[in-house]
Amino acid sequence: MTAEDRGQRIPHAPGLDGIRGLAVVAVLVYHAGPATWLPGGFLGVSLFFTLSGYLIGSLVVAEVERTGGIDLGRFWARRARRLLPALLVALAGSAVLARIIELSDRTQRELIAGLTYTSNWIEIIDGRTYGELFGAPSPASHLWSLAVEEQFYLVFPLAVLGLVRLVGDRRFRTWLIVGSGVVYVGGIAVATAISTSAAYYSTPARAPEIATGVALAAWTRHPERPAGRLLGLVGLAALATVALACVRTQLTTPWVGNGGLAVFGLVSAVLIAAAGRPGPLGRVLSPPPLTFLGRISYGLYLYHWPVVIVLDRPRVHMEPVPLFLLRSAVSIGVATASYHLVEQPIRHGRWGGSRRPAVVLARSGAAIVATAVFVVLAVPPATPTPEAADAPAVIDPGEQTTGSTTADGSEAAGPTTVVILGDSVPNWMVRDGASALDPTEVALIDGTSEGCDGAEGSPTGRANGGVVVTLPEDCTGWHDQYPPVVEAGPVDVALLVIGSGAVLDRKLGDDFYGPCDATARDWYLADVTARLEYLSEHADKVVLALPAWAEEWSGWVNPPDHHERTDCVRATLNDAVARAREAGATNIEVIDLGAHLCPDGPDDCEPVRERDGVHIDPSAAPEVLTWLIAEAIG
Q: Which sign, positive or negative, has the C-alpha torsion 104, 105, 106, 108?
């Protein structure tokens, strides 16, 4: 270590390693365990943001006060030595993984975004519809938070340099606090003004959490002095608040998307201020296992998500607790090896080579380019959504045929006109399987909508882990969606196929409810009953297809109890049919897609699903769709 490096070190505080350990454990439990264990584990990322702001802010403040400025080259070179080695290993490893097992077709795009620290903006630009959410996860989708931090590392030293030149090094601390306050207020304004997804991913909206840490660094003097009794008590209260928030909060909790993460940053700053000084709280957060996890937390965060993806259904069949322990053990083992064999040797120059900033940055750039080339060559690019094969049986609304005239003047029966309605499950079946339909037997009108099941009001859905399901803009409810396809001409059969999205929580009023909850059940019963009554007035026959149970490995997006939830949905649909018939809609029939796909029960379904465990595989779509249409026509 050079004298320059030693001069910029801040006193080591084991309690801060403990905070790192707590933060990464929260994220690990959130990602690798069942959703019910720690629904607010994502707040560990927020804690990381504030801690990073504090640590980097402390280093920069120390350098400004020691030298009267900041050496940009050395700052960025230190960040490169600290962050790039493990990142490049993780990304290259994920690229190799993509050659061995089937991963999301977004993998190449997300690996490149992770390499360029633009993952958060890619998430915002791409957006996510309901159908896209059910695709397989990418091993790089968690890198959005590292992108936010790296963008901070790029901009912050430039801002510091400009501030020093404006106000001088003596008033630098005061004005850094003022500037952090401006960023804090502005970030809250941004977070409350934009969409929930952008508020969670965008750098300006997450900047207040980092700015809080920077302000704490500028305000703190003599961190080696013991914490006073008051600070110790407030710090314990902050620790309890963080723990309670991780237990009680979900991604869909209103305060998360309305600037509340900035407030959480203030709580985190109090915790950091108390734990960063010698005292009782520092000792509470300093047991060796926790501080060890804190030291390897960067690598553990990088590697744990690819491990979770690999050790998931259908590749691994284990109960939740053993599966979590296996994922955790593998993740910690890989992170430990990376820490000792890659990160520390490069960071401290034990692998040799010049440590001059220009050389370090040039080599870093070359390594990034080489890794990018490797990713592009190793991982296939995203494939466009397959276009529907030529399917003569699929017609536009209003093109219904009424038959032809025979030689004796009578009218020959034409194909049966079927309008199919539903979300991405039937939508993908029509896309992949309609070419197998005989146009002389059926004229199919596609009224499905990927990402939208037609529920009136289009209530927001919530998937496993509290992920909010983004609905397409044209998902406005059946009152708007059904008439253009149902009333354009005579309809022989209206086929309503309920997809597995009905098992998710739905936001009704201010809260989310699962399909087994009385509130959601009553709402869904009334909604489907009204749909069936409407369809019975505009079609000769109405057929409702009961949904099939999803495969077990769909649990990465479906709630853990999705089989029980599907049973509740099926029961509600049967009740809706009974109620509609009582109201006079006697032309309604029911077919059971679940019994067709899972004749031996939900735990032993036919192997016809996509890798997401929900949709029908394109190779099986022709058979399943043909069966559906044949059963509907009768």
A: positive
Write down the pTM of the prediction: 0.80
Among 95-104, 123-132, 423-432, 509-518, where is mean pLDDT lowest? 123-132
CB half-sphere exposure, 152, CA atoms < 13 A: 33
CA distance 286 to 277: 12
What mean pLDDT do residues 3-31 have? 80
Q: Which position has the higher pLDDT, 560 or 242?
A: 242
Strands 541-546 and 468-469: unpaired
How far are the Cα atoms of 96, 142, 306, 335, 556 from residue 107, in angstroms, in the given order? Answer: 11, 12, 11, 21, 17
The two structure tokens encoding residue 454? 């037609």
A 10 A CB-CB count for 363 gives: 16
Q: How many CA atoms lie within 13 A of 556 on its CB side?
A: 23
Please name the residue that has the structure tokens 């931090």.
149
For residue 459, the one-letter residue type is: P
Closest by CA position to 47, among listed 307, 245, 198, 296: 245
Position 261 confidence tier, pLDDT thresholds 50, 70, 90:
very high
Handedness of CA 321, 326, 331, 337 (dihedral sign): positive
Cα distances (angstroms) measured from residue 154 to each of 62, 147, 496: 18, 11, 53
Three-state secondary structure call for residue 335: helix
The mean pLDDT of 190-201, rounded to a whole number, is 80
Strand 493-497 and strand 416-422: the pairing is parallel
CA distance 450 to 427: 6
What is the H or E stretch that residue 403 is in?
Answer: none
pLDDT given for residue 180 in this prediction? 95
- Give the N- to C-terminal CA distance of the chain in Å, as an integer: 80
In 3D space, the residue among 288, 277, 296, 379 whose CA is nearest the CA of residue 342 turns out to be 296
**pLDDT higher than 50, residue 2:** no
